[in-house]
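Help!! Second protein's tokens look totally different from the first
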Amino acid sequence: MENNRAQWGSKIGFILAAAGSAVGLGNIWKFPGKAFEGGGGAYILIYLAIVVLIGFPVMLSELTIGRAAQANAIDSFHKLGYRGFKWVGVTGVAVAFIVTSYYCHVGGWVLRYVVSYITEAQTVYADPLGYFYGLLGYNAATGETWFPLTAILFAAVFMAVNAVIIIKGVEGGIEKFNKVGMPALFIILIVLLARTITLDGAQVGFAYMLSCDWSKVGFNTFLSALGQAFFSLSLGMAIMITYGSYLPKHENLGKNTALICTMDTLVALIAGFIIVPAVFATLGSENVGKGGGFAFASLAGVFEHMAGGAFFGVLFYMLLLFAALTSSISLIEGVVAFLTERFGWKRKPTTIIVCTLMFLIGCLYTMSQAAFNIKGIWFDFANGVSFPIFGDFMEFLTDRLMIPLCALGVCIFTGWIWKPANAVHEIELDGKKVTLAEALGTRQFGKVYILLGINEIGAYTAADWAAQYKSLLDLVREKQPDAVIFIQSIFHTTQKKSDSSYFKNEVINERNAAIAQLADGKTIFYLDLNPLFDDENGALRADYSGDGVHVRAPYYVQWRDHLYRFGVVK
């Protein structure tokens, strides 16, 4: 059957979408602070080594699995013949769901700050920490709490934007947005970097980031860099498997992976060389931090002490907004892709339901920050059982447990289960033409479906056609000795096409009758597809086809459902 899954419209579209998924809030508000704590250049060198030695191979593995299987993150493992490893995909999809639940609310906070710096920058400057706490429903001076309605409303708007993009599909929504969002993100980065360079005192920050203070490097530094790389590159989240499944075979997976890793790392490095020197120049090195509190509260002081601070504040939060959106849409797509493919649900209602559930769960994240005492249960060997706020619990669960577990599963699957030879073969396709025998020799399949068209319909007699078909079946059996083979009938043409060309339905019927005789009813089965699409005269329905020969894509669902019902062995 022809593959009717969505595909990227262009190479640059895929690169920007995948890089957009990798480039997120972590690149901008976590990496600079971690680099500062980890000895500046020393941390950068460690991070680069981890990206090259670990991040690149894991991302390449995920993209390879997705493209080879042409399925969502969960079904990819089943489709490749290893149903027992579906847990890796399940973990990844669960990570995507949980992360987006709180990520969308942080995106809402970012959106609120874009508006704040446009409408009331001076109010933010007056009490940066208090302003941030107020957004979350808390007054630090009085201890008063209230429902964080503003934060939740902006989160709803942020999630609605995501939903609109996802509903429009892979090419029309995700790819199109990233073609605008990623260039805009890089332009803002360059503008902010240029402004930082002009700040008095920034040179000290640049010097720190370019020097290596190995005294600050310890075991935790390596763990920090590893976690940052995994989260930043969107590994272990079902994203790259899903995005890889939309890739055509002619794309070079190795080069594309290298480009994605390079773009993501470049954003992190530029962000580090913006934020750390800017803080050095305005607030002093002791004020360099990381995370939401630093991004929303501490950096207000940077913009306050900077000429044109309100303008550059808007740019900074626009940068965060684009980074958040490019990541969140990829996370949501991983969940939506699974549900639409596995259950046949429509994209639009599925997206609305998924986004609504994520948003509602995420409300607990926002409320737990200040207004409500919502806790989670966490255990580690150092501290035993603890009860962190719900937001911290969600991050612990994904960052420290589920993401590493999923990434480890991908590595084990690629290296020991699926075998490197299969992965290497998929990687090396790179648009090269392969023979049918070579394609069948890549791995063993449980079922093989055969569908031939009508291009050579007038060149052979029915007997010759059957003889050639038998040679094909013999080849398939040689390469796939244990597979069950399904012969699909040749499609009829419309009555108009049949009457005006050599693609005559009478001849097609002769060929179908001949190849039907090749089925033994044991390991080779014949499936007649024509009743699905024929009119009352036994011709392809005119409204089902655009050219009189091929079935329109919307009707592939009927085809698929027929194969699900009859193209299986009980």
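Here's the second one for comparison:
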Amino acid sequence: MIKENQFDTIVIGAGMSGGWAAKEFCEQGFNTLLLDRGRNVEHLKDYPTTNMQPWEFKHRGDVPAKIREENPIAHSCYAFREDAMHFFVKDAEHPYVQSKPFQWIRGYQVGGKSIMWARQVQRWSNLDFEGPARDGFAVDWPIRYNDLDPWYTYVEKFVGVSGNKDGLDILPDGDFLRPFGTNCVEDYFSDQMKKHYIDRHVIYGRCAHLTESKPIYIEQGRGLCASRNICQRGCPFGGYFNANSTLIPWAMKTGNLTLKTDSVVHSIIYDEEQKKAIGVRVIDAHTKTVSEYFAKVIFLNASTLNTNLILMNSISDRFPNGLGNDNGLLGKYIAFHNYRGVITATHEGHKDKRVDGHKPTSAYVPRFRNVYRQETDFLRGYAAGFGASKPMEYDTMAMGEDLHNNLLNAKESDVWNVNSHMMGETLPKESNQVSLDENLVDPWGIPQLKIDVDYDDNDEKMLQDFFDEFSEMYTKAGFTNIKTNDNGRVPGNDIHEMGGVRMGHDPKTSLLNKWNQMHHCSNVFVTDGACMTSTSTQNPSLTYMALTARAAHHAIEEMKKGNI
């Protein structure tokens, strides 16, 4: 064993959850190795487009046809544009097998997808953690809201979350900074829903943006959000939270972090005699040489599907079907969020008002279906975004001087456009699973991931309910020209895939315990999306971060006691 390859802890994946694990271990004095399969992206230094003006882009922000054709999966993501496409994986370079259509959106670099994420941060409630047991799907969560509440607060104070105290049990309040606020039509819709319903709230969407300066953010080197709305480029002010601006530098300044990039993790090494994992096997992304690194504790945060892949590829005499996989459930019960439903309309009121500038979030409608009792023919429910805008109308049909004059004399629309998109909770099912392909390998000789995930009848019924209920809500608000649209988004495009290494009480029905430890290999922890037992309707990143901080502190306590 090479001394330089020995660490106290190894964290696989330098994204949002892995960054949190590295921060916690380094702060507590543990010599930590942070591995990422992609290149290094340093805050400020490696945001090449962050200060570019629209006219400085060769294609004015659009993706050239050739690149679109070569990257149909990556291009399906809303943020894959000329200003940020360098942060996305190129389809051909990282193949996988789609048994059913699945758009796996990936960002292989230090920071991962935390550079390009949508920055929505809602807490789960106890109703979410109790959901599987109450409604008879998946397995019971081994934790409840009270277990995670202090860790939500811990994370929020470091991240910086803009929000309102809304007093909703379905969406608990957190430690919030000043909100940006909603516009007059969003406020109007909120008032109308209060007038017509007792359970349908339209609130400010909580987001990971700094609206106030505090000592902790000054120490991080971050400034206030300037509402530029080009966050996917990386922010020169550190106004929104990502691993690059906060977690990685924070861990690095302790002197306890070793960051190794271009390190493709092949597998976790299990020692039969010690009955524990002792390290990881790594392939250099460029030279293809193999190295091994060793540690007492391993945190696996490679993103949901890659975490499943690594565990399935970690075979030994003890675990011939993948590390910790005695029950054969590894890679199964994958779930995601259904974003297919969109509803638009027009609002002819507030003609004397308009919106100037930008804000990084919009209004948000928390789940209201099947919350306290079963009231539909489908299980669970959906949340929704809500936005209102008053667009400018440009006549671009002219040429030359006429076009110039038309653009300078744009007219404001007479009506407001309003829209909502659903975020439906899908049910984890054994049939929704990933596995290793028996024949195909990637450029590093690792089996390609085969993804077999799809919608079901519950999702279809939920989609129709969203259309019906929001059409009614829009009608009661006095909106006109109401149109519904099933946009056909395939699984994966939500970028909220979860599961495969789920938490639970019983080793017979789950892979992880309440501390995110593997039941059958207690010094390996999984705290990214792979650990999720169910999906709720909220954006999941805040929960990943809270789970990671909680699990890291448990691991630290156990290491100090000599238990792992």
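Reply: Different proteins will give different token patterns, so don't panic. The domain at 1-61+93-121+143-153+242-336+428-454+499-564 is CATH 3.50.50.60 (FAD/NAD(P)-binding domain).
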